[in-house]
Write a structure and sequence with these properties.
alpha+beta; Nucleoside Triphosphate Pyrophosphohydrolase; eight-stranded mixed sheet; two-stranded antiparallel sheet; 5 helices; 10 strands; 33% helix
Amino acid sequence: MNIYREISEYIPYNAQEEADKRNILAFLDKYENAFERENELAHMTASAWVTNKERNKILMAYHKIYDSWAWLGGHCDGEKDCLKVALKEVREETGVKNVKPVSEDIFSLEILSVDSHMKKGKYVPTHLHLNVTYLLEADENDELFVKEEENSSVGWFGLDEAVEKSNEKWFKENIYTKLNKKLREKYEID
């Protein structure tokens, strides 16, 4: 997989994705360490909108840093296979074993601002996550567990309920709503 090519070939869904695609590619052209957290300005991350087989539920975790229910994902930390990162993060954050891509294609692109915070006793300055999102499917009967250092709860929610559970206004209105809209359009869900 060549993530630069995949992002280049990705057809943006809306103006937000069009602008973010352009800026992600420009950042990748400029910074060799774009996949490393050491780039404190911005770095690549991978997220997952995890649905069940019926496409009517979303798997989320209650994220401690953001004090909100959120999608799943994490830092690439040098890995350039963003789908691999998304799958790994879903398994680590929730305990699900049976998770797979609905498609290996990028489902969404976004640049996300991250406010400064403390992590493991270390100050992390405000920065950007250059994010690639994949649509994944997990078995909702798999046993779930909490990854104590990152989240305090994990659960399945109906599509609209998943959006409403978030405390982050920007994510609710611009990311999660968009992901559900794309899911509903692609799979003709009411």
